Amino acid sequence: MRWMSDTGPLLHLHQAGLLDLLQEKPGVSTTPTVVEEWRRKTGEAALPEWVRTETPEPRTLRKARGWMRQGLLDHGEAESLAHALATGTGGFLTDDTAAREFAQANGLVVRGSLGVLLMAAARRRLADGPARAAWYRLAHHSTLWISPALRRETTEALERILAKNAAGK
Question: Is the predicted pLDDT of residue 127 greater than 70, yes or no?
Fold first, then answer.
């Protein structure tokens, strides 16, 4: 499945030193607005070469601007989500609740930074110690806001995954 990303997961995973976890997702792409947001927020000149930048069609950009005018989504989220829908991308990466709900309502599979981490652990891309360290870095060394309830749920999910991995299942 191809994945389109808004700025959130790219930024948060980068801050935690985990951006390479997205390489497991085939075909991660984003849009020019997200690239500009990335540059502004990280000071980095460019995203890694394996993240493709795709320019949306004018009709897609008009749709995104309409969502922004209505106050539904911010610029990067609107542009990348509109492009995902226009190009038939099956998956959308976002850490924004409104963008997540909007994408799911439009039939896209959605993952956020926490989902990327949990998926990497479940696929045994991260062993026990590295998975715990990655969770700590994401929770404490990124700007990702995580509610206390989501913190608990993620910790419990990671523990279940690591226990299952240890049991050899």
Answer: yes
